From TrEMBL:
<dbReference type="GO" id="GO:0031515">
    <property type="term" value="C:tRNA (m1A) methyltransferase complex"/>
</dbReference>
<dbReference type="GO" id="GO:0160107">
    <property type="term" value="F:tRNA (adenine(58)-N1)-methyltransferase activity"/>
</dbReference>
<feature type="binding site">
    <location>
        <position position="133"/>
    </location>
    <ligand>
        <name>S-adenosyl-L-methionine</name>
    </ligand>
</feature>
<dbReference type="InterPro" id="IPR049470">
    <property type="entry name" value="TRM61_C"/>
</dbReference>
<protein>
    <submittedName>
        <fullName>SAM-dependent methyltransferase</fullName>
    </submittedName>
</protein>
<keyword id="KW-0489">Methyltransferase</keyword>
<feature type="binding site">
    <location>
        <begin position="112"/>
        <end position="115"/>
    </location>
    <ligand>
        <name>S-adenosyl-L-methionine</name>
    </ligand>
</feature>
<dbReference type="GO" id="GO:0030488">
    <property type="term" value="P:tRNA methylation"/>
</dbReference>
<keyword id="KW-0819">tRNA processing</keyword>
<dbReference type="InterPro" id="IPR014816">
    <property type="entry name" value="tRNA_MeTrfase_Gcd14"/>
</dbReference>
<dbReference type="Pfam" id="PF14801">
    <property type="entry name" value="TrmI-like_N"/>
</dbReference>
<dbReference type="Pfam" id="PF08704">
    <property type="entry name" value="GCD14"/>
</dbReference>
<keyword id="KW-0808">Transferase</keyword>
<keyword id="KW-0949">S-adenosyl-L-methionine</keyword>
<feature type="binding site">
    <location>
        <position position="179"/>
    </location>
    <ligand>
        <name>S-adenosyl-L-methionine</name>
    </ligand>
</feature>
<feature type="domain" description="tRNA (adenine(58)-N(1))-methyltransferase catalytic subunit TRM61 C-terminal">
    <location>
        <begin position="75"/>
        <end position="192"/>
    </location>
</feature>
<dbReference type="InterPro" id="IPR029063">
    <property type="entry name" value="SAM-dependent_MTases_sf"/>
</dbReference>
């Protein structure tokens, strides 16, 4: 799993520009490219090599602060299919479920991938998240959002197209998270997991 960067920005990093009104724009840096808005453009090359917090001017003299997107900002701005679990709620879920580094977690209902991202960050590089999603369009959306956030699909994540209540388990999980319409239909799966 790629660790979200620190230090000066480099090609391939995700960057967030914030204008004086607090409007945020997020994209990946690519040498020779430009970012455009109705308030002018900024060369990616002028962002590569600067530190977080630097203020840059667009071609129309609009000021933008350059930062790495926070998890909260990414989750609220990512493409959605299913209703997302908001960052304030995912923090409570991770805390109350005691999701720890190295945990093996079963998630049912990957949805748009927001909770999956929070779980993947919590389990770290030595954990394992197995997520089930029954709907094709949600599965693809979750996959895209997770890949977009981490820069690639984490090796600690297994995304399965299917219904968790149709799967069988043998006690291989430390924690179980159900984000679905009728979690009570899956209690047998939770006991097996």
């Amino acid at each position: 799993m790629q660790v979200i960067g620190s230090g000066p920005f480099k090609e391939g990093d995700r960057v967030q520009l914030t204008d004086s009104k607090g409007k945020m724009y997020s994209f990946y840096l690519s040498k020779g490219s430009q970012w455009h808005s109705h308030k002018g453009w900024i060369n990616h090359d002028s962002i590569i090599g600067v530190s977080e917090g630097t203020t840059l001017l667009s071609s129309s003299e609009t000021q933008y602060q350059v930062m790495r997107p926070l998890l909260n900002d990414y989750l609220l701005s990512m493409p959605r299919g299913a209703t997302i679990i908001y960052p304030k709620d995912s923090a409570v879920i991770v805390g109350y479920a005691d999701i720890f580094p190295g945990a093996k977690v079963l998630e049912a209902g990957a949805g748009s991938g927001g909770l999956s991202i929070s779980l993947l960050r919590a389990i770290g590089p030595n954990g394992q998240l197995t997520s089930y999603e029954a709907r094709d369009e949600f599965l693809e959306n979750a996959k895209g959002n997770v890949k977009n956030y981490f820069g690639d699909l984490p090796t600690t994540w297994k995304l399965i197209h299917g219904r968790v209540e149709e799967a069988s388990f043998n006690g291989q999980f430390d924690r179980v998270i159900f984000d679905m319409l009728a979690p009570w239909d899956c209690l047998e799966s939770a006991f097996q997991a």
